[in-house]
Predict the 3D structure of the following.
Amino acid sequence: MKKYIIVQKYGGSSVANIARIKAVAKRVVAAKNSRNHVVVVVSALGDTTDDLEALAFNLSRTPPDREMDMLMSTGEQISCALLAIAVKEMGHDAISFTGPQVGIQTDKTHTRARIETISGHRIRKALAQDKIVIVAGYQGVTDEDEITTLGRGGSDLTAVALAQALKAKVCEIYTDVNGIYTADPRLVKEARKIKVITFDEMLEMASLGAQVMQARSIEVAKRFNISLHVRSSFSKEEGTMIVKKNEKLEDVAVRGVTCSKSDAKITICAVPDRTGIAAKIFTEISKVGVSVDTIVQNVSHTKQTDISFTVPKSSLPKALQAAKAAAREIHAGDVLYDKNIARISIVGSGMRSHHGIAARMFQALAENKINIEMIATSEISVSCIISQRHAEKAVRSLHEKFELEKVE
Ligand code: ASP
Ligand code: MG
Protein backbone atom coordinates (compact mmCIF):
# COMPACT_ATOMS: atom_id res chain seq x y z
CA MET A 1 0.00 0.00 0.00
CA LYS A 2 1.34 3.43 -0.90
CA LYS A 3 1.59 5.68 2.11
CA TYR A 4 0.88 9.36 1.98
CA ILE A 5 3.11 12.04 3.45
CA ILE A 6 2.27 14.53 6.18
CA VAL A 7 4.52 17.56 6.60
CA GLN A 8 4.42 19.18 10.03
CA LYS A 9 6.28 22.37 10.88
CA TYR A 10 6.91 23.39 14.48
CA GLY A 11 7.81 27.01 15.26
CA GLY A 12 10.38 28.21 17.79
CA SER A 13 7.96 28.55 20.69
CA SER A 14 6.73 24.98 20.14
CA VAL A 15 10.24 23.65 20.76
CA ALA A 16 11.39 26.31 23.23
CA ASN A 17 12.52 23.87 25.95
CA ILE A 18 12.98 20.20 26.74
CA ALA A 19 9.41 19.67 27.96
CA ARG A 20 8.03 21.15 24.75
CA ILE A 21 10.39 19.14 22.58
CA LYS A 22 9.12 16.00 24.31
CA ALA A 23 5.52 17.11 23.70
CA VAL A 24 6.28 17.69 20.01
CA ALA A 25 7.93 14.26 19.81
CA LYS A 26 4.70 12.73 21.12
CA ARG A 27 2.62 14.57 18.54
CA VAL A 28 4.93 13.53 15.74
CA VAL A 29 4.81 9.90 16.80
CA ALA A 30 1.01 10.05 17.09
CA ALA A 31 0.75 11.42 13.55
CA LYS A 32 2.66 8.49 12.10
CA ASN A 33 0.79 5.27 11.48
CA SER A 34 0.58 2.41 9.02
CA ARG A 35 -0.99 4.63 6.35
CA ASN A 36 1.30 7.62 6.36
CA HIS A 37 4.81 9.00 6.67
CA VAL A 38 5.73 12.08 8.67
CA VAL A 39 8.26 14.70 7.67
CA VAL A 40 8.87 17.32 10.34
CA VAL A 41 10.39 20.78 9.85
CA VAL A 42 11.60 22.62 12.93
CA SER A 43 12.55 26.19 13.77
CA ALA A 44 15.28 27.04 16.23
CA LEU A 45 14.52 26.73 19.94
CA GLY A 46 12.65 29.76 21.30
CA ASP A 47 14.56 32.98 20.65
CA THR A 48 17.77 31.28 19.56
CA THR A 49 17.89 33.01 16.18
CA ASP A 50 17.56 36.46 17.78
CA ASP A 51 20.22 35.57 20.32
CA LEU A 52 22.64 34.41 17.62
CA GLU A 53 22.03 37.60 15.67
CA ALA A 54 22.70 39.69 18.78
CA LEU A 55 26.01 37.91 19.32
CA ALA A 56 27.16 38.90 15.86
CA PHE A 57 26.09 42.51 16.33
CA ASN A 58 28.21 42.64 19.48
CA LEU A 59 31.19 42.12 17.24
CA SER A 60 30.26 44.23 14.24
CA ARG A 61 27.64 46.70 13.11
CA THR A 62 27.81 45.19 9.64
CA PRO A 63 28.54 41.49 9.94
CA PRO A 64 29.00 39.86 6.51
CA ASP A 65 25.85 38.18 5.20
CA ARG A 66 27.68 34.95 4.44
CA GLU A 67 28.86 34.61 8.03
CA MET A 68 25.41 35.52 9.32
CA ASP A 69 24.02 32.56 7.40
CA MET A 70 26.70 30.26 8.82
CA LEU A 71 25.73 31.47 12.28
CA MET A 72 21.94 31.74 12.07
CA SER A 73 21.48 28.36 10.37
CA THR A 74 22.96 26.60 13.41
CA GLY A 75 19.83 27.18 15.54
CA GLU A 76 17.75 24.78 13.47
CA GLN A 77 20.51 22.19 13.43
CA ILE A 78 20.24 22.00 17.23
CA SER A 79 16.46 21.64 17.29
CA CYS A 80 16.25 18.97 14.59
CA ALA A 81 18.86 16.83 16.33
CA LEU A 82 17.19 17.20 19.74
CA LEU A 83 13.79 16.28 18.33
CA ALA A 84 15.25 13.20 16.62
CA ILE A 85 16.81 12.16 19.94
CA ALA A 86 13.45 12.65 21.70
CA VAL A 87 11.56 10.60 19.11
CA LYS A 88 14.10 7.78 19.23
CA GLU A 89 13.91 7.79 23.00
CA MET A 90 10.21 6.98 22.60
CA GLY A 91 11.18 3.88 20.68
CA HIS A 92 10.49 5.15 17.16
CA ASP A 93 12.99 5.44 14.38
CA ALA A 94 13.86 8.97 13.35
CA ILE A 95 16.65 10.82 11.57
CA SER A 96 17.49 14.52 11.41
CA PHE A 97 18.91 16.36 8.41
CA THR A 98 20.09 19.88 7.67
CA GLY A 99 18.72 21.74 4.64
CA PRO A 100 21.88 21.10 2.60
CA GLN A 101 21.76 17.38 3.43
CA VAL A 102 18.33 17.03 1.87
CA GLY A 103 19.33 19.03 -1.19
CA ILE A 104 17.47 22.30 -0.65
CA GLN A 105 19.26 24.28 -3.36
CA THR A 106 18.96 28.05 -3.27
CA ASP A 107 20.24 31.06 -5.15
CA LYS A 108 23.19 33.00 -3.73
CA THR A 109 21.24 35.74 -1.94
CA HIS A 110 22.56 35.33 1.59
CA THR A 111 20.11 36.00 4.46
CA ARG A 112 17.05 35.81 2.17
CA ALA A 113 17.81 33.15 -0.39
CA ARG A 114 15.22 31.72 -2.74
CA ILE A 115 14.75 27.99 -3.07
CA GLU A 116 15.49 26.80 -6.61
CA THR A 117 15.19 23.04 -6.38
CA ILE A 118 14.81 20.33 -3.77
CA SER A 119 16.24 16.91 -4.50
CA GLY A 120 14.86 15.31 -1.34
CA HIS A 121 16.26 11.92 -2.19
CA ARG A 122 17.67 11.36 1.31
CA ILE A 123 14.22 12.07 2.69
CA ARG A 124 12.61 9.53 0.35
CA LYS A 125 15.24 6.96 1.24
CA ALA A 126 14.69 7.46 4.97
CA LEU A 127 10.91 7.31 4.54
CA ALA A 128 11.28 4.07 2.61
CA GLN A 129 13.02 2.74 5.72
CA ASP A 130 9.96 3.88 7.66
CA LYS A 131 11.81 6.56 9.61
CA ILE A 132 10.34 9.81 10.84
CA VAL A 133 12.31 12.49 9.03
CA ILE A 134 13.17 15.74 10.80
CA VAL A 135 14.52 18.60 8.72
CA ALA A 136 16.15 21.81 9.92
CA GLY A 137 14.05 24.69 8.63
CA TYR A 138 15.12 28.07 7.24
CA GLN A 139 18.23 26.93 5.38
CA GLY A 140 19.61 25.71 2.10
CA VAL A 141 22.78 25.54 0.09
CA THR A 142 24.02 27.16 -3.13
CA ASP A 143 25.52 25.32 -6.08
CA GLU A 144 28.88 26.38 -4.61
CA ASP A 145 28.16 24.64 -1.29
CA GLU A 146 27.61 27.88 0.56
CA ILE A 147 25.02 27.72 3.36
CA THR A 148 22.15 30.17 2.97
CA THR A 149 19.08 31.12 5.02
CA LEU A 150 15.61 31.82 3.66
CA GLY A 151 14.77 35.06 5.50
CA ARG A 152 13.34 35.35 9.02
CA GLY A 153 10.47 32.99 9.58
CA GLY A 154 11.87 30.88 6.76
CA SER A 155 11.04 27.51 8.30
CA ASP A 156 7.50 28.02 7.02
CA LEU A 157 8.97 28.22 3.54
CA THR A 158 10.98 25.04 4.08
CA ALA A 159 7.77 23.24 5.11
CA VAL A 160 5.74 24.48 2.13
CA ALA A 161 8.52 23.75 -0.34
CA LEU A 162 9.01 20.24 1.06
CA ALA A 163 5.25 19.61 0.93
CA GLN A 164 5.38 20.52 -2.74
CA ALA A 165 8.53 18.54 -3.54
CA LEU A 166 7.31 15.41 -1.72
CA LYS A 167 3.71 15.73 -2.95
CA ALA A 168 2.54 15.69 0.66
CA LYS A 169 -1.11 15.23 1.36
CA VAL A 170 -1.18 17.52 4.37
CA CYS A 171 0.94 20.48 5.46
CA GLU A 172 0.43 21.54 9.07
CA ILE A 173 2.01 24.65 10.56
CA TYR A 174 2.20 24.35 14.34
CA THR A 175 2.58 27.53 16.33
CA ASP A 176 1.68 28.96 19.74
CA VAL A 177 -1.72 30.35 18.75
CA ASN A 178 -4.85 28.45 17.72
CA GLY A 179 -4.88 29.82 14.20
CA ILE A 180 -5.43 33.08 12.35
CA TYR A 181 -7.71 35.52 14.14
CA THR A 182 -9.92 38.36 12.94
CA ALA A 183 -7.50 40.61 14.89
CA ASP A 184 -4.67 40.12 17.34
CA PRO A 185 -6.45 38.56 20.37
CA ARG A 186 -4.04 40.39 22.66
CA LEU A 187 -5.50 43.68 21.40
CA VAL A 188 -9.12 42.70 20.84
CA LYS A 189 -10.63 40.28 23.29
CA GLU A 190 -13.62 39.68 20.98
CA ALA A 191 -11.33 38.49 18.17
CA ARG A 192 -12.50 35.24 16.57
CA LYS A 193 -10.55 32.40 15.04
CA ILE A 194 -11.01 32.30 11.28
CA LYS A 195 -11.85 28.78 10.11
CA VAL A 196 -10.97 29.18 6.45
CA ILE A 197 -9.08 31.96 4.69
CA THR A 198 -7.82 32.29 1.12
CA PHE A 199 -4.15 32.46 0.15
CA ASP A 200 -4.69 36.00 -1.11
CA GLU A 201 -6.23 37.17 2.14
CA MET A 202 -3.56 35.47 4.23
CA LEU A 203 -0.81 36.89 2.07
CA GLU A 204 -2.24 40.35 2.49
CA MET A 205 -2.66 39.89 6.24
CA ALA A 206 0.88 38.55 6.63
CA SER A 207 2.41 41.46 4.74
CA LEU A 208 0.27 43.95 6.63
CA GLY A 209 1.29 42.80 10.08
CA ALA A 210 -0.36 39.50 11.08
CA GLN A 211 2.66 37.72 12.48
CA VAL A 212 1.59 34.13 12.15
CA MET A 213 3.32 33.04 8.94
CA GLN A 214 6.14 34.17 6.69
CA ALA A 215 4.58 35.97 3.71
CA ARG A 216 6.85 34.31 1.15
CA SER A 217 5.82 30.86 2.26
CA ILE A 218 2.21 31.72 1.52
CA GLU A 219 3.15 32.97 -1.93
CA VAL A 220 4.71 29.60 -2.65
CA ALA A 221 1.75 27.71 -1.18
CA LYS A 222 -0.52 29.74 -3.43
CA ARG A 223 1.57 29.11 -6.53
CA PHE A 224 1.46 25.35 -6.02
CA ASN A 225 -1.97 25.29 -4.40
CA ILE A 226 -0.81 23.65 -1.17
CA SER A 227 -3.51 24.00 1.48
CA LEU A 228 -2.09 24.82 4.89
CA HIS A 229 -3.47 24.09 8.33
CA VAL A 230 -2.20 26.62 10.89
CA ARG A 231 -2.80 25.34 14.41
CA SER A 232 -1.48 25.26 17.94
CA SER A 233 1.04 22.70 19.12
CA PHE A 234 -0.41 23.06 22.61
CA SER A 235 -3.91 21.83 21.85
CA LYS A 236 -5.85 19.41 19.71
CA GLU A 237 -8.22 22.12 18.50
CA GLU A 238 -8.54 22.60 14.74
CA GLY A 239 -6.86 25.78 13.55
CA THR A 240 -7.26 27.83 10.37
CA MET A 241 -7.21 26.35 6.88
CA ILE A 242 -5.50 28.49 4.25
CA VAL A 243 -6.85 27.48 0.86
CA LYS A 244 -7.45 28.55 -2.70
CA LYS A 245 -10.78 30.22 -3.05
CA ASN A 246 -13.57 27.69 -3.39
CA GLU A 247 -17.34 27.87 -3.77
CA LYS A 248 -17.95 27.04 -0.14
CA LEU A 249 -15.87 29.94 1.08
CA GLU A 250 -17.99 33.01 1.37
CA ASP A 251 -16.49 36.22 0.01
CA VAL A 252 -16.68 38.39 3.09
CA ALA A 253 -15.98 42.09 2.77
CA VAL A 254 -13.64 42.14 5.74
CA ARG A 255 -11.98 38.97 6.99
CA GLY A 256 -9.60 40.61 9.46
CA VAL A 257 -7.92 43.72 10.85
CA THR A 258 -4.15 44.00 11.15
CA CYS A 259 -1.77 46.45 12.74
CA SER A 260 1.89 46.92 11.96
CA LYS A 261 4.30 49.18 13.77
CA SER A 262 7.31 48.28 11.73
CA ASP A 263 7.34 51.25 9.36
CA ALA A 264 8.49 54.85 9.59
CA LYS A 265 7.34 57.81 7.53
CA ILE A 266 9.60 60.20 5.64
CA THR A 267 8.34 63.51 4.26
CA ILE A 268 10.23 65.62 1.76
CA CYS A 269 8.83 69.15 1.96
CA ALA A 270 8.50 71.71 -0.80
CA VAL A 271 9.35 69.43 -3.67
CA PRO A 272 9.38 71.36 -6.99
CA ASP A 273 6.52 70.17 -9.18
CA ARG A 274 8.45 69.07 -12.25
CA THR A 275 8.41 65.98 -14.42
CA GLY A 276 10.93 63.38 -13.32
CA ILE A 277 11.25 64.53 -9.71
CA ALA A 278 9.56 61.49 -8.17
CA ALA A 279 11.67 59.26 -10.38
CA LYS A 280 14.78 61.00 -9.09
CA ILE A 281 13.87 60.66 -5.40
CA PHE A 282 12.81 57.05 -5.52
CA THR A 283 15.73 56.01 -7.69
CA GLU A 284 18.11 57.38 -5.02
CA ILE A 285 16.25 55.43 -2.35
CA SER A 286 16.16 52.20 -4.30
CA LYS A 287 19.90 52.52 -4.91
CA VAL A 288 20.53 52.03 -1.18
CA GLY A 289 18.40 48.89 -1.24
CA VAL A 290 15.38 50.22 0.64
CA SER A 291 11.90 49.21 -0.42
CA VAL A 292 9.35 51.96 -0.15
CA ASP A 293 5.74 51.22 0.65
CA THR A 294 2.87 53.72 0.78
CA ILE A 295 3.56 56.95 -1.11
CA VAL A 296 1.48 60.11 -0.95
CA GLN A 297 2.00 63.09 -3.20
CA ASN A 298 -0.45 65.92 -3.47
CA VAL A 299 -1.42 67.74 -6.63
CA SER A 300 0.27 71.09 -6.38
CA HIS A 301 -1.33 74.44 -6.90
CA THR A 302 1.77 76.37 -5.99
CA LYS A 303 4.49 74.65 -8.04
CA GLN A 304 5.64 72.90 -4.85
CA THR A 305 4.33 69.87 -3.05
CA ASP A 306 5.21 67.53 -0.16
CA ILE A 307 5.94 63.88 -0.81
CA SER A 308 5.56 61.37 2.03
CA PHE A 309 6.34 57.69 1.98
CA THR A 310 6.90 54.82 4.38
CA VAL A 311 9.94 52.57 4.73
CA PRO A 312 10.72 49.71 7.13
CA LYS A 313 11.95 51.21 10.41
CA SER A 314 15.13 49.18 10.15
CA SER A 315 15.96 50.96 6.87
CA LEU A 316 15.19 54.45 8.15
CA PRO A 317 18.80 55.68 8.54
CA LYS A 318 19.75 54.58 5.02
CA ALA A 319 16.53 55.91 3.50
CA LEU A 320 16.87 59.26 5.28
CA GLN A 321 20.39 59.75 4.03
CA ALA A 322 19.31 59.01 0.46
CA ALA A 323 16.22 61.22 0.76
CA LYS A 324 18.29 64.13 2.07
CA ALA A 325 20.78 63.78 -0.75
CA ALA A 326 17.97 63.70 -3.32
CA ALA A 327 16.25 66.69 -1.70
CA ARG A 328 19.41 68.78 -1.94
CA GLU A 329 19.89 67.88 -5.55
CA ILE A 330 16.36 68.79 -6.63
CA HIS A 331 16.27 71.91 -4.41
CA ALA A 332 13.46 70.68 -2.20
CA GLY A 333 12.96 71.76 1.41
CA ASP A 334 13.36 69.92 4.71
CA VAL A 335 13.26 66.16 5.11
CA LEU A 336 11.21 65.08 8.13
CA TYR A 337 10.60 61.68 9.61
CA ASP A 338 8.25 60.02 12.07
CA LYS A 339 8.89 56.67 13.71
CA ASN A 340 5.70 56.68 15.74
CA ILE A 341 3.28 55.60 13.07
CA ALA A 342 1.12 52.51 12.74
CA ARG A 343 -0.35 50.90 9.66
CA ILE A 344 -3.90 49.72 10.33
CA SER A 345 -5.42 47.56 7.61
CA ILE A 346 -8.61 45.74 6.81
CA VAL A 347 -8.41 42.72 4.53
CA GLY A 348 -11.10 40.76 2.71
CA SER A 349 -11.57 39.31 -0.75
CA GLY A 350 -15.18 40.52 -0.81
CA MET A 351 -13.90 44.07 -1.27
CA ARG A 352 -13.67 43.26 -4.94
CA SER A 353 -17.46 43.22 -5.11
CA HIS A 354 -18.71 45.17 -2.06
CA HIS A 355 -18.55 48.94 -2.16
CA GLY A 356 -18.31 51.52 0.61
CA ILE A 357 -15.86 49.45 2.65
CA ALA A 358 -13.16 52.12 2.72
CA ALA A 359 -15.75 54.75 3.65
CA ARG A 360 -16.86 52.66 6.64
CA MET A 361 -13.26 52.30 7.71
CA PHE A 362 -12.72 56.07 7.61
CA GLN A 363 -15.98 56.61 9.52
CA ALA A 364 -14.87 54.27 12.29
CA LEU A 365 -11.59 56.15 12.63
CA ALA A 366 -13.32 59.55 12.50
CA GLU A 367 -15.81 58.52 15.18
CA ASN A 368 -12.83 57.82 17.39
CA LYS A 369 -11.13 61.12 16.48
CA ILE A 370 -8.23 59.31 14.86
CA ASN A 371 -6.50 61.31 12.17
CA ILE A 372 -5.54 59.49 8.96
CA GLU A 373 -2.13 60.51 7.66
CA MET A 374 -1.91 58.32 4.58
CA ILE A 375 -4.16 55.86 2.78
CA ALA A 376 -3.23 52.94 0.57
CA THR A 377 -5.47 50.40 -1.09
CA SER A 378 -5.09 47.12 -2.90
CA GLU A 379 -7.76 45.00 -4.50
CA ILE A 380 -8.51 43.28 -1.21
CA SER A 381 -7.25 45.66 1.47
CA VAL A 382 -7.36 49.23 2.71
CA SER A 383 -4.59 50.57 4.95
CA CYS A 384 -4.38 53.78 6.90
CA ILE A 385 -1.24 55.23 8.42
CA ILE A 386 -2.08 56.80 11.76
CA SER A 387 -0.25 57.89 14.89
CA GLN A 388 0.99 54.91 16.85
CA ARG A 389 -0.68 56.03 20.07
CA HIS A 390 -4.08 55.39 18.49
CA ALA A 391 -3.20 51.98 17.08
CA GLU A 392 -4.98 49.81 19.63
CA LYS A 393 -8.10 51.95 19.64
CA ALA A 394 -8.19 51.89 15.84
CA VAL A 395 -7.97 48.11 15.64
CA ARG A 396 -10.72 47.71 18.24
CA SER A 397 -13.05 50.18 16.58
CA LEU A 398 -12.60 48.59 13.15
CA HIS A 399 -13.20 45.13 14.55
CA GLU A 400 -16.44 46.44 16.02
CA LYS A 401 -17.47 48.43 12.94
CA PHE A 402 -17.23 45.42 10.66
CA GLU A 403 -18.84 43.17 13.31
CA LEU A 404 -16.02 40.66 13.21
CA GLU A 405 -16.95 39.36 16.66
CA LYS A 406 -19.91 37.72 14.92
CA VAL A 407 -17.69 35.49 12.78
CA GLU A 408 -18.30 31.87 13.70
N1 ASP B 1 14.56 30.54 13.31
C1 ASP B 1 14.30 31.39 12.18
C2 ASP B 1 13.70 32.70 12.64
O1 ASP B 1 13.46 32.88 13.83
C3 ASP B 1 13.43 30.74 11.18
C4 ASP B 1 12.04 30.41 11.67
O2 ASP B 1 11.76 30.48 12.85
O3 ASP B 1 11.20 30.07 10.85
O4 ASP B 1 13.47 33.56 11.84
MG1 MG C 1 12.14 31.56 15.18
